[in-house]
Amino acid sequence: MPPLRATAIAHPNIALIKYWGNRDDALRLPAAGSLSVNLAELETVTTVEFDAALTDDMVTVDGSAQADAVCQRVSAHLDLVRNQAGLKLRARVCSRNNFPMSAGLASSASAFAALTLAGAQAAGLSLTPQALSALARRGSGSACRSIPGGFVEWEAGSEDRDSFAFSIAPPQHWALVDVIALVSRSPKAVGSAEGHTLARTSPLHAAYLASAPGRLQRCRAALLNRDFALLADAVEADSNLMHAVMMTSAPPLFYWEPDTLRVMKAVRAWREAGLAVCYTVDAGPNVHCLCPTGAAAEVARRLSADLGVSQVLTATPGGGARLTDTPID
Ligand code: PMV
After folding, report:
1. What is the DSSP letter of 185?
2. Three-state DSSP state, 70
3. pLDDT tens digits along 101-115
4. Ligand 1 atom index nearest CA of 34
């Protein structure tokens, strides 16, 4: 008999080399590889409990029962777990985030990583780390990168089984800090699942994909050699190109707010004046300012005092998804 109940913790990850566009939308097989780092201070905790008394899956996030669209996406993911485990029971899913959802902080990555680990454990599945990462990918592509710890690479792969993420360096490899300028807390209008399907409508997507392996290689080398100048160059180029694809898709997606660009320009000016910091922006308006630990307090101070950013979060490299004994009620 499987345990039927389990709880898992997962961190979101910030992509240094982004994933934008699929070669297979249904399987969420990406068109290119990507690189990320998990964010230790931000987390999602999820309890999954299979229960014979339930007739439907029930999903609560941060204390609120979720609307049909969220429940359907969670149910579809649990169906993958149930099919593998030969289990028919419906589940109660209870999840908590310690950061705002759907605001470009990759809550879907930590959400589906935690759901996958808790669901697989509760259903009695015994999966390799690679299989767990590939399964998390089916819920939200970037979730596969929140299964392993530290600095992570997702190799695009060519089919369901070989498209998974793995750690290229542990969290303590490089004391980088992500100083996040929260420009807006409102949920984004177009989610990334829909965005991925629009990527191929941009005339720039082919150029983005053709140049992606080179940027990934430069970024991987920068990470492994702790070369901040090279990292800054690859990370900013990749973020800018992804947003160029977004802005030129049909319909266009504009995730930036005026304050997003203001922070990006300030970060570049600060770096030119000698402060080690670079930016990257996901599918939302918030700006992730990456810097070595020694620069983090100054970056946070300038964001608040000089640019008037009202909320600044800081996060350091984090570990992989893990089980915990403490359930969410
Ligand atoms: O995993 P998704 O479908 O939420 O897509 C993630 C998209 C970006 O955050 C913009 C880039 C990335 O690689 O995380």
Report:
1. -
2. helix
3. 655 566 799 999 999
4. 13
